[in-house]
Specification:
By secondary structure, this protein is an alpha+beta fold. Helices cover 20% and strands 28% of the residues. Among the domains are: 69 residues, no CATH class; 40 residues, no CATH class; 63 residues, Dockerin domain (Type 1 dockerin domain, Orthogonal Bundle), CATH 1.10.1330.
């Protein structure tokens, strides 16, 4: 029988070993017809030492009888590959790593592994900022620059956006840089717009209130601007006007209810104060005898509980107690003596002397009639 050529190298090695050390070699026993084994490259990667027929049944590629898996050109065995927190099966190690994954070992599958990737800083562009996440999420979800496992966001540039410096707007400033210059940062990835830094607020157009208008837009629509940063509420556009709190005392910006609640007289919606707003209309005698000028009979009664002396009346020494010439609160004989002492004398100017009760410039019978009408009055407050 002729020796197969494939066995020649094996027999040569055995002969050389035997020559070197005849007692150290264990001579194999070859059985005629016994199947030969060899390396079989499997379809899913990896290698198995099987017969040629077994390799064929496995769908593999047989590398020849007596070939060895350690030298066979087989692709490595596939396994699970983790991409961030997700897992995919049947990846070769090189393909897994090339695509940014983490190979979980030959023969592994996603039912056996738990993908819990390491995290690090993911720097965002073009406006700066950072999130801490895994490599795959940084790359696929944020299109960011992953700075390595275990890194934190302190190594990334801060986010940038528009900044209002007064009424001027500048792009691409970080929040700290904007605030350092006394500005108002409008947020990451914002851009300056024509109205970005124009103050806005509430605007009253009649009794209707609108938010977010500039003063210019409010005025253009015939409204009243309530101030930068103001917002509408239930009372924002209730009409206001001037309120008189007494003779010569006028205030603006009061609603009718607020004016009345503070004891004033409301002069009407959108009214203002001037030198004629709160002029006196007459004298009012109060319950405790003093006299004050008031705006109207209603003002005298409602505000002071007094007695109105008529339009054009003024407060004089005897306005609220005529005939009480000695101001003791009583009109009696003591006052009659004073009156008689002045009887028949002229008064200049008229009304400048209290005995001239009708202010006609003479102390005469006309004043006597008024005095006798008041004689006996007690002008002192009760009690």
């Amino acid at each position: 029988m002729r020796c197969p050529l494939a066995l020649v190298p094996l027999f040569a090695a055995l002969i050389l070993s035997a020559v070197a050390s005849p007692s150290a070699i264990a001579w194999p026993v070859w059985s005629r017809g016994a199947p030969a084994f060899g390396a079989c490259c499997l379809p899913a990667g990896g290698c198995a030492l099987v017969t040629e027929s077994e390799c064929t049944s496995l769908g593999g590629s047989y590398n020849g009888d007596f070939s060895d898996c350690s030298t066979a050109p087989c692709a490595p065995e596939t396994g699970a590959c983790c991409f961030g927190f997700s897992c995919q099966d049947n990846y070769y190690p090189s393909d897994c790593q090339f695509q940014g994954g983490v190979f979980q070992g030959p023969g592994s599958n996603c039912g056996q592994v738990f993908c819990n990737p390491p995290t690090g800083a993911c720097c965002l562009f073009p406006f700066g900022g950072c999130v801490e996440t895994d490599f795959i999420t940084c790359r696929d979800n944020y299109q960011g620059d992953y700075r390595g496992n275990g890194t934190d966001c302190s190594i990334c540039p801060p986010p940038e956006g528009a900044c209002c410096l007064g009424n001027t707007c500048e792009n691409f400033l970080s929040q700290s840089s904007c605030q350092f210059q006394g500005g108002v940062w409008l947020g990451a990835a914002t851009f300056c717009q024509p109205t970005s830094c124009v103050p806005v607020g509430a605007c009253c157009i009649g009794t209707q209130c609108s938010d977010g208008l500039t003063e210019q837009d409010c005025s253009f629509n015939g409204g009243t601007f309530l101030g930068s940063g103001s917002i509408c509420d239930a009372n924002s556009c209730v009409p206001t006007g001037a309120c008189c709190f007494g003779v010569g005392s006028c205030g603006t910006g009061y609603t009718a209810d607020a004016c009345f609640a503070n004891g004033g007289i409301y002069l009407g919606d959108f009214s203002g104060c001037d030198e004629f707003s709160c002029l006196a209309s007459g004298a009012c005698c109060l319950p405790n005898q003093p006299c004050t000028l008031v705006l109207s009979a209603a003002h005298c009664l409602n505000q002071f509980g007094g007695v109105y002396q008529g339009d054009g009346s003024v407060c004089g020494p005897l306005t609220c107690c005529p005939g009480d010439f000695n101001f003791d609160g009583l009109v009696n004989t003591a006052d009659l003596v004073i009156f008689l002492g002045a009887f028949g004398t002229p008064v200049d100017p008229p009304g400048s002397f209290s005995v001239d009760l009708n202010s006609d410039g003479f102390v005469d019978t006309a004043d006597l009639v008024i005095f006798l009408g008041a004689f006996g009055n007690d002008c002192n407050p009760p009690g």
